[in-house]
Every structure is written in C-alpha cells, then in structure tokens.
Amino acid sequence: MRRGPSIARVLLGAYCTLVFAFLMLPLFVVFPLSVSAATYLQFPPPGLSWRWFQNYFGSPSWIAATAVSVEVAGTTALVAALLGVPLAFYLTRGRPRTLTAAVDKLAVSPLIIPSIITAIVAYRLLAPYRMVGTKTALVLGHTILALPFVVVVVTAALRTFDTTLEAAAMGLGASRLRAVLRITLPLMTPSILSAAFFAFIASFDDVIISLYLSGANMTLPRKTFENIQFALDPTIAAVSVLQILFVIVVGAVWFALGRSARATPFMP
C-alpha cells in the first residue's frame, strides 16, 4: 500500500511556497505600476497607460545608460570567464592543497566583503591612473564582483567531472593541454556559460561600484537610483519591468546555448 506524503514534507512544501510568494510579491506591484496612468508611484494605479514605457524609449539618457550597462556587463562576463576558468582548474587540480585552499578563500572573498568596501578600494587603486570615470574602470571593478560567481560554478562542475575521459585521451596520445582543450572544456561549456551568465547579471545589476567608478558613463542601475532621488515617477517601474524581461530573455538564450552545447557531440 502506497503511503501519502509525510507531514514534514507537506510543511516543507508549504514553507517553500510561502517563501516563493514573498519573493515574487514585488513583481505583482511593479508590473501594474509600470502601466499606471498616475504621474507618480501610486498603488493600485488609477488607470492604465503605456506613457512610461514611451518615456523610457524616447529618452536618450535612459537608452544611453542601458547601452553602457549591456556593454560593461558583457565585457565583464567575458573577462571574468577568461580569468575564472583557469583559476577554477588550479583550485581543483593544483598543489599543494594548503595553497589552493587559501587562494580559494581569497577568490570568493568579494562575496563576503561589502560592495562599498570593494568600490572604495577600487577607486583608490584606479584614481592615481586617472581611470575613474572610464568603462575600463567599470569593467575592472565589476570583474572583482563577478569573478567569484565564475569560480564557484566552474569549480563545482570540475569537482564532479569524470577525469577518466582526460586519461583516456592522454592514453591515446594526446597531451594534457590538448585533452583539456578538446575533451574537458567542450563538456564544461554549459557550466561555463552559466557562470558567465551570473557574472553578466552581477555587473548589470550593480549600483554601488557604478556610483564610485562610472563618472559620466551612466549605467542603468545608477540612472534608476538617481531617478528615485530626484524624479519619482513610474518610469522607474517601467525600467524595472524591462530589466526583469531582459534578464529572463538573456537567461533563456543562455540556457538554450547550454543545452545545445550539451547535446552537440564533441570532436576529440
């Protein structure tokens, strides 16, 4: 006789449902506000209007800030992946283990250190070279923020990777480097893409480092933050909705690329 779900499992499911509903609750507020007919943030909206989306698409400053954020986040994801993947290989296969453990803690420390500390240190380091206010400074600052995500994701994938595939390739005459490039990295592509996606989102969503390093290169989160202070109208809600939709679309594309890479046979 099949037994029903236990009380503990039912309670856990109810708890998870409540937490999910609590996290999703702001979306049920932001979406109606983005099409509000009111001239200020008012919930529930007195009517519906698309004027705030038109205000965003018709504003050169909002579009320019979006372009800067996408460019910086894309470059940050690329740089973080180029740095994080070799570092993950070192952390999982390097010797001695005491040194790799110390490097591991250092690599993920930006997840623990407050972003404002990272921003102040980055500003202090870059200011003497007159790099503050450039996109390069933003990329460097965001790479510090995004690198731990790449390291954590790729390291976790490498620790579960079947190294006998590399051993088989080397047994057939391939060098270790060739085995890694032709066997390991193709099989690791979904994990690398996921790590790059997290790095992209970490950069695209950052406010604090952008406030210190962006200068005249206004990013979308910084533009939103300043509008909250000086122009509290539903354009902010419209921008938030577009950001959510953008992240969903980018995530779906990244997921599709990861599935395609997983399904495509590699050539040894």
Descriptive report:
With 268 residues, the protein is an all-alpha fold. The chain has one domain (49-263): MetI-like (MetI-like fold, Orthogonal Bundle), CATH 1.10.3720.10. Helix content is 75%, strand content 0%. It has helices at residues 7-34, 51-57, 60-93, 97-107, 115-126, 135-159, 164-171, 176-204, 208-213, 220-230, 235-263. Helix 5 crosses helix 6 (135-159). The longest helix has 34 residues, at 60-93. The chain is globular. The mean pLDDT is 81.
Write the layout of secondary structure elements.
Elements: H1 7-34, H2 51-57, H3 60-93, H4 97-107, H5 115-126, H6 135-159, H7 164-171, H8 176-204, H9 208-213, H10 220-230, H11 235-263
Helix pairs in contact: 1-11, 2-11, 3-6, 3-8, 3-10, 5-6, 6-8, 7-8, 8-11
Q: Give the strand tally.
A: 0
- The radius of gyration computed from the alpha-carbon positions, rounded to a whole number of angstroms, is 23 Å
CATH topology: MetI-like fold
CATH superfamily: MetI-like
Query: What letter string, H or E per element, gives the SSE order?
Result: HHHHHHHHHHH
Kindly report how far apart the N and C termini lie: 51 Å
Point out poorly predicted stretches.
Answer: none
Number of separate domains: 1
Given the structure, what is the number of helices? 11
CATH 2nd-level architecture: Orthogonal Bundle
Strand content: under 5%
What's the average pLDDT?
81
Shape: globular
The share of residues in helices is over 70%
Give the class from helix and strand content and strand pairing.
mainly alpha
- CATH class equals Mainly Alpha
Major beta-sheet overview: none
